[in-house]
């Protein structure tokens, strides 16, 4: 199957959040987003935008769950944010509840998804954030699976609108 991708450049954390917020507005229950990028590339800023797009109440401060592993936020659909950076080899993902979250009815954003067992993600959006300048990021979103493919069509439209808006 050919993989579809959408590429967009943001010039600030605010633009990264705005892009993710617009994407959050079109997500459906069960969506999984695999976030890849170096430390400081904007993965948490992206999740903050998703949270806003999913109507997570403003009183919730969305941060990277580096030490807690999974943060959950209420919204139009629950948002689960997992950060696997500090996981050690051999950790039981079932024991920490990750597989329950991945199979749930919310939206799941996973940082450092390469730490998952191969095949753990079947239908998902891969979001790669690359640092291209002090504040700018190249964001590549790739669909893996039918649900993700359908979402990517909407994301492509969003990216065109955002590029026009940002000039």
Detail the topology: elements first, then pairings:
Blueprint: E1 5-10, H1 13-26, E2 32-36, H2 43-53, E3 70-73, E4 79-83, H3 98-102, E5 107-111, E6 124-131, E7 137-144, H4 146-166
Parallel strand pairs: 2-5, 2-6, 4-5
Antiparallel strand pairs: 1-7, 3-4, 6-7
Helix pairs in contact: 1-2, 1-4
SS element count, helices:
4
Strand numbers in spatial order across the main sheet: 1-7-6-2-5-4-3
Indicate how many domains the architecture comprises.
Answer: 1
Q: Helical residue percent?
A: 25-40%
Q: Summarize the helix and strand pattern as letters.
A: EHEHEEHEEEH
- Computed Rg: 15 Å
Intertermini distance: 34 Å
Largest sheet: 7 strands, mixed
| Basic shape | globular
| Percent range for β-strand residues | 15-25%
CATH architecture assignment: 3-Layer(aba) Sandwich
* Average pLDDT: 86
Task: Look at the helices and sheets and give the structural class.
Answer: alpha/beta
CATH topology label? Rossmann fold
Low-confidence blocks of residues: none
Organism: Desulfonema ishimotonii
Protein name: tRNA threonylcarbamoyladenosine biosynthesis protein TsaE
InterPro entries: P-loop_NTPase, T6A_TsaE
GO cellular component, one term: cytoplasm
């Amino acid at each position: 199957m050919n993989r579809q991708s959408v590429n967009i450049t943001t010039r600030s954390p605010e633009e990264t959040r705005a892009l993710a917020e617009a994407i959050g507005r079109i997500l459906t229950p069960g969506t999984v987003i695999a976030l890849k990028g170096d430390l400081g590339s904007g993965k948490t800023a992206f999740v903050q935008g998703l949270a806003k797009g999913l109507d997570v109440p403003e009183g919730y401060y969305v941060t990277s769950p580096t030490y807690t592993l999974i943060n959950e936020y209420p919204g139009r659909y629950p948002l689960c944010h997992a950060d696997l950076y500090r996981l050690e080899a051999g950790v039981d993902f079932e024991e920490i509840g990750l597989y329950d979250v991945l199979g749930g009815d919310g939206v799941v954003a996973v940082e450092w998804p390469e730490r998952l067992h191969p095949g753990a993600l079947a239908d998902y959006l891969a979001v790669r954030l690359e640092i291209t300048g002090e504040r700018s990021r190249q964001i590549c979103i790739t669909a893996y699976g039918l649900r993700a493919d359908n979402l990517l069509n909407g994301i492509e439209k969003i990216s065109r609108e955002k590029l026009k808006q940002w000039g």
